[in-house]
Amino acid sequence: MALWDSVIGAAAARGAALIGRARAVPLASLARASCLGGRLEALRGRSVMVAIGDQLTAAIALLELDGVARRMVLCTPDLPAEHLPHVARTAQADVWLGDATSSAAPEAAGLDFAIEADPAPVPLPGGARRPAGKAESQLDTEWVLLTSGTTGAPKLVAHTLASLTSAFVGREPGDSDSPRRMPGAGEGAAPVWSTFYDIRRYGGLQIYLRALHAGSLVLSSAGEATTDFLARAAAAGVTHISGTPSHWRKALMSGAAERFSPAYVRLSGEIADQGILDALRAAFPRAVVAHAFASTEAGVGFEVRDGRAGFPATLVGTSEKGVELDVSRGTLRIKSPGNASAYLGVGAPPLNDAEGFVDLGDRLELREGRYYFVGRSGGIINVGGHKVHPEEVEAVINSHPRVRMSLVRSRRNPITGAVVTADVVLADAMENPRETAADERIRQEILDACRAILAAHKVPATIRFVPALEMSPSGKLVRPGA
Amino acid sequence: MAVRSTITTLFQEVAREQQRQLAPLSDDLKLLQCGLDSLSFALIVARLEDALGYDPFDTVESFPVTFGDFVKLYEARAT
Predict the structure, then answer these.
(1) Whole-model pTM?
(2) Residues with Cβ < 8 Å from A351, sequence gap 6 or more?
(3) Is the CB of residue B51 less than 8 Å away from at least one CB of chain A?
(4) The domains spanning A3-360 and A380-465 adopt the same CATH topology
(5) pLDDT digit string (tens) for A128-153?
(6) Which of A68, A127, A371, A432 lies most in the core, judged by the most C-beta atoms within 10 Å?
């Protein structure tokens, strides 16, 4: 069943709405109005690049497209234009769906067939949307999410509606993950969801889909100050809200959390340390503070609600709710109906290992009956929810003529969880072990090169000149934790 | 005073680097209204740890909201 058919009856009856910064759209109104209008049929069976800038318009378009398009590629609004051709090619996209606020033009993706979504739903000429239940003409639309790759070009991760909603659809009413049984969801009162995430990212998409199945959704807005967003969320009566630990630290620093009293606060996308959990418990004494482990590839692994960092060892090995966790190799491996189906593209690596698990290299340490995350193998750095592949940064640093080699690694940070730091060996390091004024100039040149090429969160926060870097017997750089 | 001037210098340095317009720093200036983003604060905190040798956030009870709170957080650990 398509998203529209599975949610609209119930959601409309509850008076649910999608609430943006400038306007709100009652879900019931979408039975008779559309952002795509008659153009929706032109998208049937196609692979659609959803490159809409406005998040509310995108939220409506996804709802309309599911079951109609063969594939939708959820382009994040900050996707650099230089990656558009790769994404379009890999997804075999044949149509561009944009709006007046799209950050790029269809030509940038190499697409000559483009459709523009209306900024607000327009009444359908026939008066009503196609009747629900025309199941024979419905497609099992593939939802494609982008996640950062080693080379800087995004990887394309394919899901289905079933895999995206497996963490909460089909739950028994008594199940704690059933949307109707979420904390604070009293009898008759539908939750009002919100998220700091953009819904084109996995963490935001989870909240979007949960809201459509039970409740309303208040969308964040790019460029909106945290204080304003939280004030808007409070005014809209938000009960359930999610973000990364970095989003939450920023919210606490804004002071706006004082005037907001949600029932459920969720953290995901980064390691939730005890500090941020304690600070949130103090700031929101009424709320259940939960941290979830989820990723674009593995889906939702688990949610922990006991206010403590890490997760109980008892979660491992069991197959509760069809989610199986394994730690036998030192990293968290997840086999679940929430796993993505594949990476798209010719020659793309397999998503699951031989035993059917997704392993993203999140390393664990067991202490007193609890597993704690201790970083990523392969050295992937998570700066405020944005992944950084060290190799990508090293390539830029190493392009400086005076640099012999470099090692980029993670450094713990209380604001963004981690920042990027670089150890650099200069070509004449052995003769010149001490830092000099000349080194300071090289440091500036390296940073300038990084800033010119890399996104801000990938630019090293600090650079240290070292005489040498450790190499493995096979001649590779020894990466901490690898 | 040394702590405060180190902090002020770093706010200015990072604002310049990140090409952000820094508001005049006063004790009652809200941090989120000073013109810097989360990444900028992350850079400031990392470099303060290098300059001062400590990170007071590891035992923080409530997050600083104003520039004055931020300075106090570091000064409290210095003494």
Answers:
(1) 0.83
(2) A157, A297, A339, A340, A341, A342, A343, A358
(3) no
(4) no
(5) 776 544 556 789 999 999 997 766 78
(6) A68
What are the residue boundaries of the structural domains of chain A, listed by start? 3-360, 380-465
Q: How many domains does chain B have?
A: 1
Measured between CB atoms, which of B17, B47, B63 is closest to A252?
A: B63
- CATH number for the domain spanning B11: value is 1.10.1200
Q: pLDDT tens, A113-122?
A: 999 999 999 9
Looking at chain A, which residue has its C-alpha nearest residue B34?
A254
Mark residue A478 as left, alpha or beta (left: phi above 0; alpha: psi -120 to 50; beta: remaining): beta
Residues 6 or more apart whose CB falls under 8 angstroms from that of A149 comprise A155, A389
Q: Which of A282, A419, A457 sits opposite B46 (nearest CB)?
A: A419
Q: Can you list the pairs that B37-41 forms with residues at least 24 positions away whose Cβ atoms lie under 8 Å?
A: B38/A246, B38/A249, B38/A250, B38/A384, B38/A415, B38/A416, B39/A383, B39/A384, B39/A416, B39/A456, B39/A457, B40/B14, B40/B15, B41/A253, B41/A415
Domain range for B57 is: 2-78
Question: Does this complex have an ipTM over 0.95?
Answer: no
Residue of B nearest to A386 (CA): B39
Query: Domain A3-360 is in which class?
Result: alpha beta
